[in-house]
Amino acid sequence: MDIRSSVRLCAGWIALGAAAGCGAPASLPVAVTVSGDAIPLALSQAPADPVRGLKIMAGRDANCLLCHAVPESGQRFMGDLAPSLSGIGKRLTAAQLRLRVVDMSRLNAETIMPPYYRTTGLYNVAEAYRDKPVLSATEIEDVVAYLQTLK
Fold first, then answer.
1. What are phi and psi of 58, to 5 degrees?
2. d(C-alpha 22, C-alpha 48), whole Å
3. pTM attached to this predicted model
4. Whether 78 contacts 68, CB under 8 Å
5. Which of 11, 75, 78, 117 has a CB 3.0–4.6 Å from the CB of 69, allowing a cystine?
6. Which of 83, 84, 52 is nearest to 70 (CA)?
7. Which residues contact 149 (CB under 8 A, 6 or more apart)?
8. Contact between residue 23 and residue 128 where contact means Cβ atoms under 8 Å apart
9. What is the distance between the alpha carbons of residues 63 and 101, in angstroms, rounded to a whole number?
10. Rounded distance between C-alpha atoms, residue 119 and residue 15, angstroms
């Protein structure tokens, strides 16, 4: 099995993370409108919280630090399979960040990043978690709010 297959398999397990007690969101995702390389409108009306965003990124639901380094996070262990997120808030808008968290495969079909809000076209998803996003709309917005602080 090559590294891409392994990571895709791993991404499938991340999508199934709720089986290990992570608590997958119960609500169905809201429709998103993609414009170019971004999702211009927030997915949730709730105020976004960057502190919660960091907890989500470092926690078991998103597990972003498995692949990404975020030196500003203060976390001890970080991955190096994907680009560092240091300074990402300076390079990308909230709308661009939102699309990347929702479904990076819309920009790069070969990405190893799991889709955190897409529910269709996935494989090996346990029936209990089908049609449910890994992160809720509010959690996506919290992650985007945290990423915007990385300037």
1. -85, -15
2. 21
3. 0.80
4. yes
5. 78
6. 84
7. 50, 72, 89
8. no
9. 12
10. 10
How many alpha carbons fall within 13 Å on the CB side of residue 106?
Answer: 21
Residue 36: both structure tokens together: 């170019």
CB atoms within 10 A of CB 103: 22
Coil/strand/helix, residue 141: helix
Give the domain ranges of the chain.
Answer: 3-149
What is the chain's length?
Answer: 151
Q: At 38, give phi and psi (nearest 5°).
A: -150, 165
Query: What CA–CA distance (Å, rounded) separates 86 from 150?
Result: 6
Look up residue 31 and give its DSSP letter: P
- Closest by CA position to 118, among listed 96, 88, 140: 140
- pLDDT tens-place string over residues 1-55: 333 333 333 333 333 333 333 344 445 578 899 999 999 999 999 999 999 999 9
At 25, which amino acid appears? P
* CATH of span 3-149: 1.10.760.10
> What residue type is 102 in one-letter code?
V
